[in-house]
Design brief:
Leucine-rich repeat, LRR (right-handed beta-alpha superhelix), globular
């Protein structure tokens, strides 16, 4: 399924699992105002466009080609983020996601964890 337009009418959906489905355009999902959870695990395309879905609280990008996290900076409501198995190195953007409670960085290229050291601390 490369065309998500038929899903645009599912406005009551809180979660969507697109695991392994190759999607190039997430734009139709912008109409799903209640969408809080998106699973894009193992997608080779489109995973860099999740930033358009500003209401997300949970995002799974594991096994995707994601490298740059800057597009996720606007997802300030994220509480759960799975980046396992990605090529992510720079975690600077994640340090700005103050609501982040669960973060999976296993099998990534990240080595400097200083940017996320202050997450979930009372003085943050």
């Amino acid at each position: 399924m490369s065309n998500l337009e038929p899903l645009a009418g599912l406005t009551g959906s809180a979660g969507l699992d697109l695991m392994g489905i190759q999607v190039s355009d997430l734009e139709p999902l912008n109409k799903l105002t209640g969408l809080a959870r998106l699973d894009q695990q193992y997608q080779s395309e489109g995973s860099d466009r999740a930033h358009q879905l500003t209401g997300l609280t949970s995002l799974n990008l594991s096994g995707t080609r994601v490298r740059d996290l800057f597009p996720l900076a606007g997802l300030t409501g994220l509480t759960t983020l799975d980046l396992s198995g990605t090529q992510v190195m720079d975690l600077t953007t994640l340090g700005k996601l103050a609501n982040l409670k669960t973060l999976n960085l296993s099998r990534t290229h990240a080595r400097d964890f200083a940017p996320i050291a202050r997450l979930n601390r009372p003085d943050h």
